[in-house]
Task: inverse folding
């Protein structure tokens, strides 16, 4: 139980991922499914950012005349992965919302049950 309170970023990430996954499975509205997918993406970015941060270390910017010691800097890879993931997530969300708009124009609804069982 103590680990739950000391690793609150990771705990929040797991809770957000669970909420997004539940929305993806249980909602019948396609827009709400996209929102659940975005919540899941956000939880992964929070987890990567939490794991990439090391207290007491600085930004990895090389300054001329100072030795570049690896133990003074934070690893820049998690930040780069988060930025790349955000770009991909925005692109996927835009494509999904455009596809949902096409579904709405064709079926007249965004409810998945009404689309599948349309008479």
Result:
């Amino acid at each position: 139980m103590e680990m739950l309170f000391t690793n609150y970023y990771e705990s929040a990430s797991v809770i957000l991922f669970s909420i997004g996954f539940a929305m993806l499975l249980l909602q019948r509205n396609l827009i709400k499914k996209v929102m659940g997918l975005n919540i899941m993406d956000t939880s992964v970015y929070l987890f990567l950012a939490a794991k990439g941060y090391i207290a007491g270390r600085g930004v990895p910017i090389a300054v001329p005349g100072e030795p570049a010691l690896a133990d003074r800097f934070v690893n820049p890879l998690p930040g780069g992965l988060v930025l790349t993931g955000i770009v991909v997530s925005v692109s996927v969300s835009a494509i999904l919302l455009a596809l949902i708009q096409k579904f709405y124009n064709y079926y007249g609804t965004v409810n998945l049950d009404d689309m599948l069982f349309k008479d």
User: Anything to note?
Assistant: The mean pLDDT is 89. The chain has one domain: 2-116. The helical segments are 2-6, 8-26, 30-52, 77-107, 112-116.
